[in-house]
Design brief:
Elements: H1 4-18, H2 23-68, E1 73-74, H3 75-88, H4 94-97, E2 98-107, E3 117-125, E4 166-174, E5 193-201, E6 210-211
Parallel strand pairs: 1-6
Antiparallel strand pairs: 2-3, 2-4, 4-5
Helix pairs in contact: 2-3
């Protein structure tokens, strides 16, 4: 018996060495974590691209809709536009993680050397606590601090022409990943602040002051001192 045991073990080792049963399953099991990470990364990047496209459209839509309002613009009009923004951003949880800032930009009407642009009024929506990078309501009204206009490019600023105005919209959003994964391929997306701007000229509106024909209280107005997702 003791002499036969080494022969049995040798034969068993030889059989195992040439046995290919289950090899594909073993290789699949070894590659599954890598395949899973690649799938998650692909889905995450697709969601990131969708969020970017959504934010761009939200900024363009808000600026365009505000610029189309004729005769006068009211607090109720701004509220309706921001309700549309809230609905458009539900899929990416924009209200809780983003901020939209709408500014009415006009010529300040001051003589030189104080001639420039001004932010006549400004309204906001979203829970993210962030201010406009271009100024607040009233900025430039009496001086030339905004003589170059507003915008993200120093050499290509947005300015209004005399007798009209420009609706300038900024959107800032903290990207929310789909998967709680710390893979190196998507770490850079987490809590990445996305910024988009859009500007449209005012059409057929002589007075760009913000009226309050429906008697909104300060709590109902979309003041930039409010930070909420509704």
């Amino acid at each position: 018996m003791s002499l036969a045991l080494p022969a049995v073990l040798s034969r068993l080792a030889r059989d195992l060495r040439h046995d290919r049963r289950g090899l594909a399953l073993t290789e699949f099991a070894m590659s599954l974590p890598i395949l899973g990470l690649l799938c998650v990364t692909g889905i995450e990047f697709a969601n990131y691209a969708r969020a970017c496209m959504n934010l761009s459209q939200m900024a363009l839509s808000a600026a365009d809709n505000a610029g189309r309002i004729q005769d006068r613009i009211d607090e109720a009009d701004v509220d309706s536009i921001f309700i549309g923004t809230r609905n458009a951003g539900e899929g990416i949880r924009f209200g809780a993680n983003g901020r939209i800032i709408m500014s009415m930009v006009e010529v300040n009407g001051q003589p030189a050397p104080n001639t420039g642009q001004k932010i006549t009024w400004q309204r906001c929506y979203g829970a993210k606590n962030i201010a406009s990078t271009h100024g607040a309501a009233g900025d430039g009204a009496t001086n030339a601090t905004l003589v170059a206009g507003v915008g993200t490019k120093p050499t290509n600023r947005i300015t209004a022409e005399a007798g009209t105005g420009v609706m300038f919209v900024e959107i800032v959003y903290d990207y929310q990943p789909l998967f709680p994964v710390t893979g190196f391929m998507i770490d850079g997306l987490k809590a990445n602040a996305l910024r988009y701007t859009a500007a449209f000229p005012v059409r057929e509106r002589a007075d760009n002051a913000l009226t309050n024909g429906f008697s909104f209280t300060d709590a109902q107005k979309r003041l930039c001192t409010h930070f909420n997702a509704t």
